[in-house]
# Entry
Amino acid sequence: MTTGRVKESDVIIVGGGLGGTAAALSAAKAGMRVILTEETDWLGGQLTVQAVPPDEHRWIESSGSTASYREFRTRVREYYRRNYPLTESAKQDPLLNPGNGWVSRLAHEPKVALSVLHEMLAPYVNTGRIEVLYHTVPVHAETSGDEVTAVTVLHTLKGTEIKLSGRYYLDATECGDLLPMAGVEYRSGAESRQETGEPHALEEADPLDMQSITHVAAVDYLPDGDFTIERPADYDYWRQYVPSFSLYPILSWYASDAEDTSKLKQFTMFPNNEGIVSLWDYRRIVDPAIWSLPLNAGEVTLLNWALNDYYAGPLIGVSPEEREQHLRGARQLTLSLVYWLQTEAPRLDGGKGYPGVRLRGDVLGTEDGLAKSPYIREARRIRGLYTVTEQDVSKELRGEAGPLRYEDSVGVGSYHLDLHPTTVSQRTFYIPNHPYEIPLGSLIPVRVTNLLPACKNISMTQIANGCYRLHPTEWNIGESAGLLASYAIANNILPREVHAAAGHRQAYQQLLIDHGVQLHWTEAELGQV
# Structure
């Protein structure tokens, strides 16, 4: 390992996921110089390297997100219209859904999301306002009192280190990796009911009880083909593994019902006339039915199902060896799912297996057909000036009071309190929500002055994270964090002082509004709840 040079910038953003990318874009628009690091060779996090189509809400086409996020969505549709041979009806469809997957109004290919993000960043990257460092991970942070003074990153391919120095540091890593390095107070895993008062919290806190991860795969299906992979090393284990909340092995067509997670629901592979929910078109991202010319390709779907949720152990709070064990385990589970689909999955016609299921690494930029990184639903979360809890968001708990409005709001979002099976208790639930806002206090650490969270690591409980972790909200958090750092630099003031002083808070909120950030839900929108 060799020590590299020092790089300086106004804002250092560690992590090039969705929040980090949005933060870099907003800070650059506000006139800041930005260094953005990324562990892989793709920016975009959930949308790209993790291969998760956007989970959104009913208002997303017109409101309930930042203007730049809606611009991203518009650009995705324009990309397909410019570059794909679409049917006339698809070209004219203002709500074009490229994959026609029913999980999202905009199910699309990760490579398209990557291209669009590059387009949006291009003016700033090409002029040097933003510098992106790929294949880099944080390894050390230097502090002085309550201030971060430098972050050292390692280039994982070259083995060289670079010291990054800036006025502000944003943690946009998928696991909140910069927080312990910088000595930032944080939470992880499950809080206790005594601490948060949340009805669905555990009786005792468990920092290792975290939401499952999923290593997504891309597949297509050729009915006459046989693409059966080598039997995965852990297949026998997963074929027999029965979760504590189920009567069936994880590799079966039975999983928790999202509407009532105490019950099991039957699924199947393809659309059918028997009323059984199909998983094939759930996260379908390529639908040739919208093409006017045959491109020698069929439908492509993403395997991000309950069948490959990995909850055998967490990635945070364990030794490097255990972390690698769980990363390998998640890959093995997904490969086992593919092999099960190819060889043993019950078909509605009484047969078993679909050997024509084929892994599509080209879709995800990999050789093996699995995403570059696993989908990580839960990170370390800062201890901030304000902590979002179940009581802030739950429709039942809010009762007649309705959605909660924060005077210091920096954005809006909406999604169920969706907790996938956790690594210790294996509890899972899907709690109806009210449309929510993002309080500025949740972005400001209780002590450290110049580090901000920029993704799933704001001050919130594990249960609240179930809704604040989704695409539009993560983008909003990153964008607002980038603008908060920019405002603090421009006015020579700390974020906590922005929060405390009404004049500065309102000026910062006006900056957000000027950049197209929606701060509150309107009465008309809330009337549709």
The first helix runs from residue 18 to 29.
